[in-house]
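Task: sequence design from structure.
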């Protein structure tokens, strides 16, 4: 006997982000973003790749929406480029910039694809970086203004909003390790960035509620399963600290409870901006949902490291595979913060075999099967997962890896911009909430 696990309104979707797919970063009055500036700085990306053309989605969005429609996806998670809307980050709106998203959203709705908008996916207006970017306290107000404008302008049609995509990556890859834009290496700036991201996020959530927008708002978090390198007390503690420092507790504790996690007090007291505690009441503003993304690594205690531990393995594509870990993560998030709604973003990897016009990517299919199976089991076991977004709709600019990594379930021939649906795209498109039965 079969039993239906997922409801018909489970959102099977795909995800992208503005700088990674749009191309034309300076067209129609847009201002440069930090990723435009960073990728144009020699030595920052593989082969000096930039997002200048990317998937040319800015000009091909209609065909891309048709592609999503033809594949039967119910939802599309994409981000808005702040510097298309406000070329200087604040002040005067660039009408042509907002027109692009207006048209994209209308096109999606016409195709029956639900728009799921991310306000910020790493491409800060360069003009705001010149003022300190996420390390400047004022960014909370700049972000609030930007978000409010979008709520007013698009809130009649967009019902799902995520404020910031993977805030940990923004702060630490961008401000501490310097590997991502803006390329800063300063631990104090990184902690200020975390704190200001939370302040900005909560101001946007409050604005959303004040505007009475008919919809839901949440945040997208990266989570890494930190396996202790050994059973020593030091490594076990390092894994706990790494978890609280880089996973959902760092964000959801302040958002839902109004304080930073217990085990990282030493870090927050050492590196956070002075007086940060005074902001915690303001940050404490519950949200409607969380989108989760997972990976795993191994953590070892190391007193010489500024954070007291080091991540000794960080497999790029090797996701958290075991059901018990996956379930425990989601169950804790659901119970500790009383969340009624969660979404999952499935990562991916590059493993394409190209034969004429066919792209065989069995490993990606196996991976997607495994991940979707985890999702179905988690829902069966009471986890309130309401949708799943595969990263990514199509191959795109993978940040410092440039175009050397292909995460798409649709192949992009960058010379011709031809899209070719990979075998994994065909497999994923055959998946429907109502067709998954266990
Ligand atoms: O490409 C990124 C995306 O921008 C954020 N999440 C992880 C993806 C794969 O690395």
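Answer:
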């Amino acid at each position: 006997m079969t039993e239906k696990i997922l409801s018909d309104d489970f959102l099977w979707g795909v995800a992208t982000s503005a700088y990674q797919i749009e191309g034309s970063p300076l067209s129609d009055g847009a201002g440069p973003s930090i990723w435009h500036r960073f990728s144009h700085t020699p030595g920052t990306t593989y082969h000096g790749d930039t997002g200048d053309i990317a998937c040319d989605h800015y000009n091909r969005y209609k065909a891309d929406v048709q592609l999503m429609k033809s594949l039967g996806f119910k939802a599309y998670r994409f981000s808005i480029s702040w510097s298309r809307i406000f070329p200087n980050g604040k002040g005067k709106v660039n009408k042509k910039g907002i027109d692009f998203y207006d048209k994209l959203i209308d096109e999606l709705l016409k195709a029956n694809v639900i728009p799921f908008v991310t306000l910020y996916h790493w491409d800060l207006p360069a003009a705001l970086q010149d003022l300190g970017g996420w390390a400047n306290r004022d960014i909370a107000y700049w972000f609030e203004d930007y978000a409010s404008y979008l709520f007013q302008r698009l809130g009649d049609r967009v019902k799902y909003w995520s404020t910031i995509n993977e805030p940990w990556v923004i702060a630490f890859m961008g401000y501490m390790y310097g590997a991502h834009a803006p390329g800063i290496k300063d631990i104090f700036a990184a902690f200020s960035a975390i704190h200001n991201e939370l302040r900005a996020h909560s101001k946007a959530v409050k604005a959303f509620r004040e505007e009475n927008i008919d919809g839901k708002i949440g945040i997208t978090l990266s989570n890494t399963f930190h396996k202790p390198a050994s059973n020593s007390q030091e490594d076990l503690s390092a894994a706990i600290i790494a978890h609280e420092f880089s996973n959902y507790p760092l964000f959801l504790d302040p958002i839902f409870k109004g304080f930073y996690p217990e085990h990282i007090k030493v870090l927050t007291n050492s590196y956070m901006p002075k007086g940060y505690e005074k902001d915690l009441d303001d940050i404490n503003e519950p949200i409607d949902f969380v989108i989760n993304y997972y990976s795993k690594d191994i953590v070892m205690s190391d007193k010489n490291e500024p954070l007291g531990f080091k991540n000794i393995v960080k497999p790029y594509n090797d996701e958290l595979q075991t059901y018990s870990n996956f379930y425990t993560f989601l169950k804790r998030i659901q119970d500790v913060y009383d969340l009624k709604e969660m979404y999952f973003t499935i990562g991916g990897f590059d493993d394409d075999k190209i034969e004429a016009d066919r792209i065989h990517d069995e490993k990606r299919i196996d991976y997607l099967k495994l991940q979707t199976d985890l999702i179905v089991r988690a829902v069966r076991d009471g986890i309130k997962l309401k949708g799943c977004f595969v990263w990514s709709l199509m191959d795109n600019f993978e940040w410092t890896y440039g175009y050397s990594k292909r995460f798409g379930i649709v192949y992009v021939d960058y010379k011709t911009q031809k899209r070719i649906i990979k075998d994994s795209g065909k497999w994923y498109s055959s998946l429907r909430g109502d067709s998954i039965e266990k």
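Residues 17, 20, 166, 293, 347, 391, 398, 407 surround 5-hydroxymethyl-3,4-dihydroxypiperidine (CB under 6 Å).
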